[in-house]
Amino acid sequence: MSKIISIGNISMGGTGKTPVTIMLAKHFIAQGKKVCILSRGYKGNIGYETNVISDGKEILVGPDKAADEPYMMAKNCPEAIVITGKERFRSYEFAERKFQPDIYLLDDGFQHRKMKRDIDIVLLDHKRPASTGWMFPFGYLREPASALKRADIIIFTRAINETIPKKVANYLKGKPVFFSNIEHMGVFNENGQVDVDLKGKGVFAFAGIASPGKFFKYVKSLGADIVGRKVYSDHHGYDDRDTYVIERKAREIEAEMIVTTEKDYVKLPDDVKENMHYLKININVRDREGLLKLLD
Q: Regarding the domain delimited by 3-175, which CATH topology (the fold level of the hierarchy) does it fall under?
């Protein structure tokens, strides 16, 4: 019987769900298991019906129609089946009929309670685990911090140490807790090759993600001099006008390079990708083997 693992959070914005999902998919694929990633496909242009982005052999829907995160997961895990759809249970039923996976990874599934799961993994920002403490629209929480009692495994991201923050400690008693950091893999070009050293270079940086400040900080940590920047809304879809503005501004300030996130890069028109680079990130779980052993 197939197993279902949900990867989610209780706050709005990025906590590293996509890199964790990619890490787990690669782990189970390496074990010879058939993995299916179920995603809502937020802000994709293909619609919210059940759509197969990748069948585990080839990518069937390009970045112009697929949402950015499912396309990224398909690109990074070519052997994983990636399916999007608003109703995750319908996607699950479809995958059961067509693919019969061994493992389902339910991307951003903690609040999708209609879909059963065997394990709930919840990611928390170590610096702001309960965000402002207020529910949306007054704050950034999707549900109260007490919802963490439903979680089976907790992974803190951006962990500065291995201490459980007091704001959530009472809700995590008896649960396996892991600590992680985001690490950069390098700056890549359109061929996926690391060929750039940013140290001392004047960079125009842009991003359309939940926490663009983190991206700019990463770029600066590589020694780049950010001479210009532009922020778009999360999941922004880029068109020719956007890229014209980006390239024009970069020229005006005589930037040596244009750098963005991988999530943004996959959505750029193909004819401009050769003029831009992207920062690739990875999740570094400190006790990775312990986490994977627990899941196994």
A: Fructose Permease (3.40.35)
